[in-house]
Specification:
The chain has about 200 residues and is α/β, with parallel strands linked by helices. Helix content is about 25%, strand content about 35%. It is built from five helices and nine strands. The strands form two sheets. The protein has a seven-stranded mixed beta sheet with strand order 5-4-3-6-7-9-8, with helices on both faces. Helix 4 runs parallel beside helix 5. The structure holds S-adenosylmethionine. The site of S-adenosylmethionine has 23 residues, from helix 2 and strand 4.
């Protein structure tokens, strides 16, 4: 089987590269790794999501499909608590290291698929750059099950390539949320927020 960034156990040899980024007016260092999404860089879609995501200092949020942790770690400076999850075990190890090197104390990383690691928990926002290449069924699961993990008026915030599923995702969000807003667009991506 081909090795993908969303494999549970990547079988490409481990290589790492540390990057420094300045985003939302804050500086971060991220260890990135082969076999984990966006090796050696901050993905353009992720960057648009981070720049435009709505955050509040009272919130507990979920970063679903955290990869090396860019979304959850940046959000941790602006919210009360962050849970970061991923199905890729290498991503989990790297995200834990990134919490440490960025001095993050108000976040934790959990392994598991979709909402399994947060069964029964609710959030003020679920934020994700979803694993589009894992297939439409995974995207659908993320969207249709989000409302039961959100408080009233909680937000599902996600980024998607305009030409790779944006129409589909927006339609699904409109069916499952009271309101859907476009938070940003650029470089071939759209960021949507669904209000539960
Ligand atoms: C597009 S990447 C985004 C990673 C990271 N949030 C970022 O923006 O750099 C999607 C992530 O979802 C993870 N993923 C794939 N299938 C998943 C599943 N069923 N449950 C949770 N995470 C999954 C992948 O391993 C990958 O890290």
């Amino acid at each position: 089987m081909m090795d993908h960034y969303y494999s549970e156990e990547p079988d490409v040899p481990l290589r790492t590269k540390t990057i420094e980024v300045m985003i939302r007016g804050e500086r971060f260092r991220f260890i990135t790794a082969s076999g984990v999404f966006s090796f050696g860089k901050l993905d353009r879609g992720t960057e648009l999501l981070i720049e435009s995501m709505i955050l509040d200092e009272r919130w507990k949020i979920l970063d679903l499909g955290c990869g090396y942790g860019a979304v959850g770690i940046t959000a941790s400076r602006f919210v009360r608590y962050v849970i970061m999850t991923d199905v890729n075990r290498r991503a989990i190890q790297i995200a834990k290291k990134n919490l440490k090197i960025n001095g993050v104390k108000n976040a934790e990383v959990r392994w598991g698929s979709l909402y399994e690691p947060v069964r029964g928990e609710k959030f003020h926002s679920i934020i994700t750059n979803p694993p589009v290449h894992a297939g439409k069924e995974i995207l659908r699961e993320i969207v249709i099950n989000a409302p039961r993990h959100l408080h009233d008026e909680g937000l599902l915030q996600l980024v998607i390539k305009t030409k790779q599923g944006a129409k589909y995702i927006k339609g699904l969000m409109e069916e499952n949320f009271a309101e859907v807003r476009e938070l940003a667009k650029g470089s071939g991506y759209r960021v949507y927020a669904g209000i539960a």
